[in-house]
Amino acid sequence: MLLCLGINHKTAPVEVREKLAFADSHLHEAIREMRRLEGMEETVVLSTCNRVEIYSAVNDPERAMESLREYLTRHFDLGDFAQHIDFYHHSGVAAAWHLFRVASGLDSMVLGETEIFGQVKKAYATAQEAGGTARRLNKLFQQAFQVGKLVRSSTRITHGSTSIGSVAVDLAEKIFGELSGCQVMIVGAGEMSRRTGTSLLSRGAKSIIVSNRSHDRAVELAEEMGGKAVRFDDWEETMIHVDIVITSTAAPHSIIHPAMVETVMKKRRGRSLFIIDIAVPRDVEPAVNELENVYLYDIDALETMASEAREERERQITLCEAVIQSHLDENGITALAPIPDRPPTGKDRSRPGNDLVGDSPEADPITHS
Hints:
369 residues; alpha/beta; 14 helices; 15% strand; globular
């Protein structure tokens, strides 16, 4: 049986999502711990700024779900707070269908975004490295990649702004108009920072400054974008001169505090500072937004802008789901195909439908989850 347990931007605000964000440095061990839980056989963890989802192959669904909830409460030290988290869960066909929608960008804050496809691939690769996958999840995720590519090549779901980074740049343009005269500092040198910086350059940003705990990575990204790298200890001084700060680090706690920004603002001579925080957990303390001439937007605030571009993309959802359905009508769900007890005999091979994928009690016709 396949299971999916999770939260996302539609079911939980950023204050909740950041409590459940898995640190990359501990993810391998967490996957191994979850696979050892009662009822669990395989595990993949998808942890992004907009969702935390655990996909599992299990032999005892009820016990596995209970064990998983207990593990999350324990792992993140949630205590009584766990009772207030609105997890969703899917099983069997519904779990597979959900993953196919996620990989296709149909369940994202920005419909059709492209980052999620890479994030799903990374989550699967990490689980493989940790020994978290076997037959069922291998087949499930490999088919999800096929479906995701098929949806994007067959529809217009990726047209327009397709990422959180692009929406962040849209916001900067709304604030300043043209970006040709703007100086931008990016704090963090990961993939999200790279994509955001690339979008800024394509919209005409004058100069981009990159700061990161690993200075070598900051230099690498800055050179790629024709910008300048500053050491992490020096970025506060640099903030005095820039117009926009975009933060996207993997820090487990906030790194920009009100007192720090207040000191910077005293040296800016009344110039406004716009901070766009697209990290989860958040890089910037919310109280920063209370400072005069400081305008802070976190990842949930970007949902407002994302919704403006949703109408056209929502018209594509029905077409995208029809593409998924057609693929599954033809191929079934490979992860739910039965495991043969013995090599098929000649008689078995001649039986009609014996080679069809999804020929099992779990592989019912697809229904929406």
